[in-house]
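Box S1 | Example of a co-folding query
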Amino acid sequence: MRVTVSEACVGHGVCESLADDVFEVGDDGVSHVLLDPVPVGREDAVTGAVRACPAQALSTSA
Ligand code: SF4
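Box S1 (continued) | Returned holo structure for iron/sulfur cluster
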């Protein structure tokens, strides 16, 4: 799985709070993906972050 952050990200960090090994909100105020591809063992956490993102800024692909 790969996960990407779109321009819709407003940086409130819900994704980071759910998977801080995968996402990090940078000094630029938006989230960055730290693990690409996402390790299999973290896919459920990333899926949860995708669902939880208030801006619907996260999307996944195979
Ligand atoms: S939860 Fe969504 S809007 Fe918030 S920092 Fe993460 S990707 Fe950006």
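The chain has one domain: 2-61. The chain has a mean pLDDT of 98.
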